[in-house]
Write a structure and sequence with these properties.
homodimer, 286 residues, alpha/beta, D-Maltodextrin-Binding Protein, domain 2, Alpha-Beta Plaits, six-stranded mixed beta sheet, 9 helices, 27% helix
Amino acid sequence: MKKDKLKTGYQGVPGSFSEQALSEYFNIKTEEYHFPDFEDVLIHLQNGNIQYGILPIENSSTGGISETYNLLRKYDCSIIGERCLKIEHHLLGIRGSCVKDIKQVYSHPQGYEQSEVFFRNHPNINFLPYKNTAESAQYIRKLNDKTIGAIASRKAAELYDLDILAEDINFNRKNITRFVIIGKEQKVSKSCNKVSIVITVSHTPGALYKAMGFFEENHLNLTKIESRPLIDEPWHYYFYLDFEGNLRDPIVISALENVKSISSYFKILGNYPCHNLMVKDGGQNE
Amino acid sequence: MKKDKLKTGYQGVPGSFSEQALSEYFNIKTEEYHFPDFEDVLIHLQNGNIQYGILPIENSSTGGISETYNLLRKYDCSIIGERCLKIEHHLLGIRGSCVKDIKQVYSHPQGYEQSEVFFRNHPNINFLPYKNTAESAQYIRKLNDKTIGAIASRKAAELYDLDILAEDINFNRKNITRFVIIGKEQKVSKSCNKVSIVITVSHTPGALYKAMGFFEENHLNLTKIESRPLIDEPWHYYFYLDFEGNLRDPIVISALENVKSISSYFKILGNYPCHNLMVKDGGQNE
């Protein structure tokens, strides 16, 4: 019997970094769907139209991606894996154009922010934000104007038949985006060595410190803390914590019970194998 | 002798929330300069072209503004004050247009993100990002097209002679942006009750917890922790900490000395009077 292909989803258009991270993660051909908004990925996952979705969660140059943090909290889903991808931005133009022709450049604001040094040195290029990098490439191809460029990937240049006018314009050679792979249910296996949770603590001074103490005293290594605002209470925060551990380990179970007992909100976002990408200047090795 | 007016600067164009926060903070008429980029504010401050600048640092719905955090670390400057401003977004169009005419809307991505519920309910309106909210208002006025709208403030509608097609479209009634006022030098007075610092700690597990312990044991209330990535070391972070205190207080001095002793990077960003804005649904009271 022929097995049905996995159905997967990402935000953006073909040629996007999300699509690339998705295909690297699964390493087999999946039936890929793409959607205009981040939230669509979660909606289609919830409705069963796809089995897995992928969302970017953090860039090593510009930080956490708020929308993804909010959606992971809001939807009933679980992080089942992560994938780090080296991001290389190029300045693209229509065939026959060159850097000095470009007066306007479209891209996602993150593409521009990550290439700010290049644009500081090219002050005549005016930036106009666009939905995402690959779509900006698609868009300038349609405009077909020598004075208009896009910041996007090599794959986007190939897909939309554009020239690369300037290579690797991101200022940070170690520019990595981390993506999370999201499924409907949590599946804990032996290889899961990273746990992500989100909590809120009471407004009493030191409450976060106390929560962190439960990890500390159990020698559980907190690898990440990210604060996101509580919508209804200005200047109070959700804390997203990542730590090394497996949800079947009694020490982890006990630490989380303690954290939960002093949290006003508590959610386990997932337990999954950590993905490390070692990046050298100009190269990429795993 | 007539005193020269203070020279102040902000990013954006007249009608922006930065301009509004600036004029509310100083409460006297200053000589205002506006610049295309956030970094320009710091450059002109450094060059002595302005005495004070203002930058948005955090929104209560969408979180910290990365670029400001990075610039405060990079430039030799000091936070001398803060101002919270209630943000109300409106859907603007050219005179005579109405909501159902609008097919495309320009704004800063934050304006769109903060109004996402409205646009979920108006799926025919396509979002195109723009540099900032006030500039998007200025831009659609130039386009003079009934199908094109902007998300911006009431003041922008007045300045650029646009109609308000839908009022208060931000989903969060308590939508506040906090701005920091930046000067060249630190001035500590008695009224300064909030300290902002940025540190990096060693990669050993528990190092951040240890740093936080110095505040805890001195009963200094940490009000905020924000992590921003270290550019050259993926997944290591700068921690921006705010706490209640005055830099002349011996307890504060001693706690900071301890924190500094275990930090690989340490910078005091400023000591200034905290600004609290109590916002009720639909109203604003200080």
